[in-house]
Structures are given as C-alpha cells and as structure tokens.
C-alpha cells in the first residue's frame, strides 16, 4: 500500500524476478522518449549485454545491493527463465522515461519475446548507479495505458447503458478530478458507490504508466453502473488533472478526501443521499474504514483490503518475495532485520521523506520507502481490524486466494472484527481482481486485456441489491 514500493498493496510492479529500487512515483510525469539520455544509454548497454550473454558486463554499473543480489550467474538464470516463460528474445523498443521518486531516475524499455511483450524497468540513483531492475507488464502505450482485447470490447458495449460526466471536487486545498457514471435507464435518484483507489500512481481508471493497463476501476464502474448503480471514481491528489502534492499526504489527508467526495455525492440530485456506499480497493479499503465513522453511508465494501497493520503486511510481502527468489534462511533473516530497521526509522522520522544516513543509506528497504515516509508513518501501525469494530453498517469483504499482496487470512481477520460483515472468498482471484487459473506468481500483474473476475462482479452486485432490499434502505 505504500505508494512507491515495488511489491506493495495495489501496485505490485514486478514479477518477483528481480530486485532493487522503487519504480513509479506518486505524481507520474508523462513518459517520453529519451534514447539519447545517459540513463537510457546505460540501460540499453545493459540490455545488449544480456542479449549477448555477457553476464559480467551486464552487471557493470550495479550498486552494491544489486551486485550482491544479482551476480552474473543469477542474472543468467533469470534471463533464461524469462525466455522459457515468454519465448525467445527478439529485440527491444524505444526507451522511455517513467516517473520515479526522488532521487531515482527510471527508464522503461519494452522487450519483445516470441510469445509476449514485457517491460524492463531500470532505476538509477542520484550517482547514476543501477539500483533496481524489474520486469513489468507494458500497456500498449507506456505513457497512457489503454485497455485492449476483451476489456476494450466489453467497455465499448457497456458504454451504451451509462452516461459519464466529469467531476471536480474541492478537498484539502486542492481539486480532485474524476468521473461519475450514471445509469441511462431509470429516473433516479440512484444508489451511489464511491470507489477509493489502491496505492501507487493509479489513475481513476486503475491504470499506471508502464504498469497497470487493464482499466480495472473503469471496468468495475461500468459493471456496477450497468446494473443500476452510480459510481464515482477519481484521480488522487497529485495525479493530473487532480491538483495538490501527491507526496505530501497522510492517511488523514486521504480520509478527508473521501469524506469530501461523499458530501459532494450526497448533494447531487441524481444521487440518493441515503444510499451511498464506500468501496475501497487495497489501500482504499483502509481509507474507507478510517473515513466511515461520522459519514452517513449505507454500507462499505473492502476489495482485497488489509486486515492487519501495514508493518506486518510489508514484512510478509518482502519475506514472500525473498522466498520466491530462493533466498537462504540467513538472507531472509537479514531481509527481516533491514525491514524492521526501516520501519523503526520511519516511526522516528519527521516530514514527508526519510533522511538516509549511516546504515540506512545501505539499507535497500530504507531507500525504497524513503520518499513516502510521511504517508507510511501515518499508516503502518493502524490496525484495520480495530477500525472495523466501529463500522456499524453492512460490510462486504473480499479475499482472493491468489492475492500475493494482501495474503489470505487478512479478509478473515477483518470479517471477525466487523459487526455486520460478510466475507466472500474467491480462490482464484488476484489482488488486482482478475481470475488466475495457474500459480499466483504467474498472475501478479494483470495484462491489458484481462477482464475482472466475473464471480467477484456478480457477488458485489448481489450484495448491493440485497442491501437496497433491506427495510432500512428500501424505497
């Protein structure tokens, strides 16, 4: 859920193949071709060495952590694994700049394999050393992800049953821009769902440059609107066209944003103010729990939201990644110690970011989390289950069995705490709400053409319909 880290809730950027520095920033700038830039030249040189099998040469320019984690032999094995999974390497596309938290610089290079196109994301530190190397899905455009295939066709068909209108809402000294979708059929006023997004630089559609590209939030909004529900989704602070500073935020900031959006919805003539539902995905689930007290809402939905404090989730994710890399017990113990040192430093920190010095400067987790220390400090020790005990409206909680960001067990913990909770389990659903028939690690990130898990959508609609049919909500 922390917004910059590669393996945190809501924006899992890697295939758990490689390691290193952060990937996307909280305020993504437009990607642009930079083939002549120093970082791009270094990235292409590394890629050329990989393609030629010059493994030692490929590690030139690695920082100390990368040299330790990806020695030449390990690099060879990973490159071969990529081709075993995706077919023979056939070349690369143009290098583009993608956002990265200060002081990092990131370059994305599309890689063409015989059976897939993936992105290799190179993250460089302020000294120009390669501090991170990640394999990420690539959308049709690295700058503006667009849905493809089944997703594009489905959204086009559904457009006939809804109308969309732009929204601008003042909140926390900034303006949140988004889209309200309303059913074409029916006179209204309509029950409304406020969609609170997960962590990372995901836009109102659920997309992020060079990463998420299947418009999962737009899919969900269209699904629900075509079933008779209004849906408001929005771009978070600092994500254009929304204004504000997306780095200088805390949990309280996001809570106030949610409350201001509910207030705006309740004032719209097309919306029934007594039938507003908070729906939070991932980090949005935590925000929904924190925002709900004091709001006049009819219900709350947590899609793959956390059920235990963030500190535990961060540790469990990192350890799971280390195990997937084949780390030894000693290496896992070292990872755990580094995580705990980072979390302790964040708790002691002040301001937006974490100052790196001494041992922290050599701690890869500290480097990863440093840019968003202020947000993390406000979230890491908050217990979602404790918040759930104060929710006295019906609550739907989902738990995907293939979720490798919020591990199974979180949903059950949350459901035990909430007074009116319904827990819905989906054995083959991922954190990003798609169906995964194979191993979870093969579905860490959705492809641009992946549609939402149909079982999830049907379950959410049934729950919403039942909520409206209860005596206190019936017309």
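^ Assign residues to that structure.
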């Amino acid at each position: 859920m922390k917004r910059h880290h590669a393996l945190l809730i809501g924006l899992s950027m890697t295939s758990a193949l490689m390691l290193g520095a952060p990937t996307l920033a909280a305020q993504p700038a437009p990607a642009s071709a930079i083939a002549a830039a120093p970082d791009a030249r270094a990235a292409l040189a590394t890629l050329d060495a990989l393609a030629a099998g010059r493994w030692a040469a490929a590690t030139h320019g690695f920082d100390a952590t990368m040299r330790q984690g990806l020695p030449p032999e390990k690099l060879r094995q990973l490159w071969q694994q990529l081709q075993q999974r995706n077919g023979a390497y056939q070349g690369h596309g143009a290098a583009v700049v993608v956002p990265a938290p200060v002081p990092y610089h990131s370059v994305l290079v599309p890689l063409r394999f015989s059976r897939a196109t993936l992105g290799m994301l190179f993250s460089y530190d302020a000294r120009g050393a390669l501090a991170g190397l990640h394999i990420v899905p690539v959308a049709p455009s690295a700058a503006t992800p667009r849905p493809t295939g089944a997703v594009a066709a489905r959204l086009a068909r559904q457009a006939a049953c809804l109308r969309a209108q732009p929204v601008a809402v003042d909140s926390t000294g900034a303006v949140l821009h988004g889209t309200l979708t309303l059913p074409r059929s029916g006179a209204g006023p309509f029950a409304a769902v406020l969609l609170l997004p997960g962590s990372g630089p995901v836009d109102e559609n659920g997309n992020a440059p060079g990463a998420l590209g299947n418009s999962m939030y737009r899919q969900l909004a269209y699904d629900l609107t075509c079933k008779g529900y209004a849906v408001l989704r929005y771009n978070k602070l600092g994500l254009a066209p929304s204004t504000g500073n997306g780095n200088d935020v805390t949990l309280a900031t996001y809570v106030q944003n949610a409350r201001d959006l509910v207030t705006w919805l309740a004032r719209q003539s097309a919306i029934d103010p007594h039938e507003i539902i908070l729906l939070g995905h991932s980090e949005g689930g935590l925000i929904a729990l924190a925002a709900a007290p004091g709001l006049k809402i009819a219900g709350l939905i947590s899609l793959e939201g956390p059920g235990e404090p963030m500190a535990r989730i961060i540790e469990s994710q990192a350890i799971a990644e280390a195990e997937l890399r084949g780390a030894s017990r000693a290496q896992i113990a070292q990872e755990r110690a580094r995580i705990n040192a980072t979390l302790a430093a964040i708790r002691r920190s002040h301001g937006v970011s974490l100052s790196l010095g001494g041992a922290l400067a050599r701690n890869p987790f500290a480097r990863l989390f440093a840019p968003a220390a202020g947000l993390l400090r406000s979230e890491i020790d908050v217990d979602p289950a404790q918040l759930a005990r104060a929710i006295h409206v019906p609550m739907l909680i989902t738990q995907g069995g293939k979720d490798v960001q919020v591990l199974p067990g979180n949903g059950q913990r949350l459901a035990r705490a909430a007074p009116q909770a319904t827990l819905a389990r989906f054995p083959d659903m991922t954190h990003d709400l798609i169906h995964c028939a194979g191993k979870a690690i093969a579905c860490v990130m959705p492809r641009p053409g992946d549609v939402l898990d149909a079982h999830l959508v049907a379950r959410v609609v049934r729950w919403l319909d039942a909520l409206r049919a209860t005596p206190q909500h019936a017309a």
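Residues 42 and 134 are 15 Å apart (CA to CA).
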